[in-house]
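B., you asked whether I could sanity-check this one before it goes into the benchmark set. Here's the sequence:
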Amino acid sequence: MVEVSKLPKLWIFDLDGTLVKHNGYLIDGHDTLLGGVKEFFESLPKSDKVLIITARKRKYKRKTLAFLRKNGVFFTKILFEMPIGERILVNDQKPKGLKTSVAINTKRDVFMTEKFLETDI
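And here's what the prediction gave me:
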């Protein structure tokens, strides 16, 4: 269980291998949503924001956006042509001690299994 505050959140997701089958759009000719993704996104509060990042070329943008919207994957912004290396998040800690960043690494093509518990941190 990952304890998080009750404050609005920014969720940052990689696309391939995290939300959809890795390179399915190239191998299969179409994307396949991973199990649990749709339900997770449906559960997000409207006050939260979602940033999706992907190494995909911009030429796949239209098809990718249509797939995500059709499958109920809400996002605030999506960035294409991002580097394929590590994604490093740096954030400050609030004066009262709230750590303002969380990092989760999942197995490829398996949506995260972590559950989040909002508490008065």
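One thing to flag: The chain has one domain: 2-101+108-118. Otherwise nothing jumped out at me.
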